[in-house]
Amino acid sequence: MRIDRDTHPEETPSSADAQGGSCLPDVLLIDDSEFIHSLLISKFEHEPIRLHGAMCSSEGIEMASELMPALILLDLSMPGVDGFQTLRLLKDMPVLKDTQVIVISASDDTEDKVAGFELGACDYVTKPFNLPELRARMRSALRVHELLTLLAERAQVDGLTGIGNRTCFDERIEQELSHRDRSGDPLTLALADIDLFKAVNDTFGHTAGDEVIRGVAKLFNKHLRKSDIVCRFGGEEFVLLFRDQQAGAVIPVLDRVRQAIEQTRWPAHPDHKVTISFGVCDTPAGDPRKAEDWLNTADQALYAAKRAGRNRIYYGDANGQQSALRLAS
Amino acid sequence: MPKDRGDDRKNPEPVRSDFEGDPAMRSLIDLFVAQMPEKASRLSDLFEGGHIDDLERLAHQLRGAAGGYGFGEISEAAAGLEDACRAEEELDGLRSQVDELVDLCQRARTGTEH
After folding, report:
1. How, if at all, do strands A229-232 and A237-243 pair?
2. Could you tell me the pLDDT band of residue A244, with boundaries at 50, 70 and 90?
3. Rounded distance between C-alpha atoms, residue B74 and residue B2, angstroms
4. pLDDT over 70 for what percent of chain A?
5. Predicted model pTM
6. Is A243 in contact with A185 (CB distance < 8 Å)?
7. Cβ neighbours of A35 in B, within 8 Å
8. Most C-beta atoms within 10 A of its C-beta, which of A175, A251, B2, B92?
9. Closest C-alpha to B47, from B90, B109, B94, B4
10. Residues of A in contact with B64 (CB under 8 A)
11. How far is Cα B11 from Cα B104, in angstroms, rounded to an integer?
12. Is B86 within 8 Å of B113 (Cβ atoms)?
């Protein structure tokens, strides 16, 4: 039996909030005692959490992998697969690597405590509960999870521009390919490279170069939709993902950005213009080729754009043919 | 046969929750107390049937839950029974703990009951 109680029904939390905003943390209780579930549902009614419940190990593991909760409260002594074994299984799941686990047990046995910690639990609470204590430990565990989340996010952010970095992209492209297959709609990928960027750095200095990179990132953010992704791929290179779009629909957007960059007056070098080249490709739902292959295709198209004179958009198809993207007139 | 058991079993003193005065706990206490007769008879049945493992498990559950509902006495008695189940080899040696726990469960009352 699953027990899902939104302890803050007036909130509308989004568990898939990509911005990591104000959604409530999910807390999963895995315990075979209905008494414990009832007690916590009632006692945590006003806690800023979403409390979920599972009555046994297998149900708990299934729910954990769906919810990816911030915290799991895990009863050590359940019939069948016990808490220790469950903890082992949970800690083996990559999606739960940052999930905090508080083991709960009626036993005050030191050996149990040590075993729990060694298996990766962050805390140990005995039953019957002292509820203020449980609440305090729960809040502490949730704080740790919040910090881990911030750390992970920061590790995915490019320091100069504030947009996603390569690590972020590597994760996002897999998610976008899955979305593509689930939705049936294509995914478009674009690589963008600032033209002759080395010359900007060499002539006007690295600070000027940084300003150009920042400015370009800002322009991408300005022109892209919320669901589009832009990440800094390398020094002066950006990678973009457009879900549910074929390349043809993406051209106008890219061209607007291209023009905006071309027309920008850079404070450090007002008379020196900066341009950008694009290599674009798209991939239909169900296409088995890997992310790497699509990146290569876009890369070849980008290279073709550079060879053709830069400041333009080239399209690469699956057969390795490149062509200049026709602009909608 | 233990000497004092008979008197204790006839003790009509209700067992109440420490949180009886807390309005927020009312429905929880009602919920817990409502299940006590069933738990009490199950304890007896398991003991009479010689199912020590199941008896231990039920004692363990009560031990872990009762205190949270303010029935610390029941938690303690359940702990005693659970430990005795683990240590005891003969069924007869558990009788006093079973009786004590059953008695407490039967005497559990909500705030409005006497």
Report:
1. antiparallel
2. very high
3. 20
4. 91
5. 0.66
6. yes
7. 32, 35, 61, 64-65, 68-69
8. A251
9. B94
10. 33, 35-36, 75, 105-106, 127-128
11. 10
12. no
